[in-house]
Amino acid sequence: MSKKIVELKEFSSFLRIHRNNIIDRWLISESVNDIFVKHSMYISETNKKVFYDFFDCFISVMQWELTIAECPIKMKFLQLLNTNMFTTFELFNMFIALKNVIADFFYEEQFLSFGLIKDLEEISLLIARDLSEVYEQIQRDEINFTNEHSNLLNEYKKAVDISNIVSKSNTKGVITYVNDKFCTLSGYSKSELIGKPHSIVRHPMMPSSVFKELWDTIKSKRAWRGIITNLRKDGKKYVVNSTVIPILDIDGDIVEYIAIRHDVTEFEETKEQLSTLNMAMKNKVDELYNMTASLEEEASIDSLTGAFNRSKFEKFFGYEIEKSQVNKNTLSMIILDIDHFKLVNDTYGHHVGDEVLKELSAVVAKNLKRVDIFARWGGEEFVILLPGTTVEGAKVLAEKLRKLIEETKFSVAGKLTSSFGIGLHNKQESKEDFFQRVDQLLYQAKKAGRNRVVSDS
Fold first, then answer.
1. Three-class secondary structure assignment of 57-109
2. Tell me: the pLDDT tens digits for 292-314?
3. Distance (Å, rounded) from C-alpha 23 to C-alpha 56?
4. Could you say which of 320, 380, 392, 399 is catalytic?
5. 380 is catalytic
């Protein structure tokens, strides 16, 4: 298979074609399969369709058609994982596995573009991060602790039944109860905690604004949820996903608060490590991309004039002909040659001739469109490919360039002229035949007296 340089949109279209194959590979990959086995999750055809639809959404994000926040299947996908009690860390790992499967396709098809790798990395990490944040909200919102019709005993039972780490405090924030898991995690005994404010485990790195928000929320009789970093008795930090709920009496007054926490220290540390690793990977990809781009540019540019060199033009030439045939677009070409250039070298020396080539290239380049391809073919001969341009449009451009060159006063050499050959690609001819035909038109312009434009129509 020949190697191809493609953009992200073209590659994402390729992914859509191979969607089912990619998802099937993803679901049977070792890391994802281990997660399914752990949660005894069976991939039915109904569940598989959710994964297929979500991947379609992922591709749409790659094609800039929508954001992950606008993805209609996103919530159904996350609810499927939540129903099977997947953790946020497992969701993140599943998404990294998907990115790796896509990368495998990337290498199998030999798409040669560091820019594409970079885009895939950035979009994958962005989507994974956004999904993790939404998934954490789903998990927290499913816990409904407030029920004004239940008595305190039922509230305590519910908190103990569904939580890992539990504490109670009075309306002033003084601890009145902790369970064993709270003691194990914090390193304090019950006697050391009860009667103390929760600030006994507060980490100095936590901003005061977080606790102000917490108190403002629970005093208004609403539950507060958030991530808090605490300090163990031995000085080590630990991170908890906390839900603090105000408990109301029959009159609707707050009598105490229940705090339910889940230890997410390992997850947060892993996220931080992944973030650091991803940043290092991104920096490495950027470094490689810049290095490759620099090497590609050096290998593609004529060092004297700054135009593309002949080798790079040959690659563009074949690609543009193929593209014009597929898209049924016109493709015109201009070949130009500096008149009596040998006389310039003989009279003033090659260093003056080199300056003429650079100055002429600058005149031509600044009058071309972004899609036009300008290259030095060799010596004093240059070629311009004009995708989507008719032969009439090419003639207008060539005549404009001819006049500009004629009016330019070149350093030392003074006034010079150029001759032009113009042709429109015939869908049946090869690139070699096309070039020879336009080159022959340039020869006719030279033979007819130079400083003129000759076209095939």
1. HHHHHHCCCCCHHHCCCHHHHHHHHHHCCCCHHHHHHHHHHHHHHHHHHHHHC
2. 655 555 578 998 999 999 999 99
3. 10
4. 380
5. yes
Q: Is 397 exposed, middle or buried (0-12, 13-18, 19+ CB in 10 A)?
A: buried
301-455: CATH topology is Alpha-Beta Plaits (3.30.70)
**Residues 6 or more apart whose Cβ sits within 8 Å of residue 175:** 167, 168, 169, 193, 194, 195, 196, 197, 198, 200
Q: How far apart are CA 404 and CA 245, in angstroms?
A: 78
The whole-model pTM stands at 0.40
Distance between CA 306 and CA 358 in Å, rounded? 8
The chain-wide mean pLDDT, for the chain, equals 83
Q: In what order do the strands lie in the sheet with 175-178?
A: 175-178, 165-169, 254-263, 237-248, 224-231
Q: Which fold has domain 152-263?
A: Beta-Lactamase (3.30.450)
At a CB cut-off of 8 Å and minimum separation 6, what does 403 contact? none
Write the pLDDT tens digit of every residue in 362-392: 999 999 999 999 999 999 999 999 999 999 9
Q: What angle do CA 113, 119, 51 make, to 5 degrees?
A: 115
Dist. CA 170–CA 147, nearest whole Å: 19
Instruction: Answer yes or no: are the C-beta atoms of 313 and 375 closer than 8 Å.
Output: yes
Answer whether residue 397 shows pLDDT above 90. Answer: yes
Bridge partners, residue 421, by sequence: 335, 454
The 10s digit of each residue's pLDDT in 184-203 is 889 999 899 999 998 899 99
CA distance 419 to 258: 88
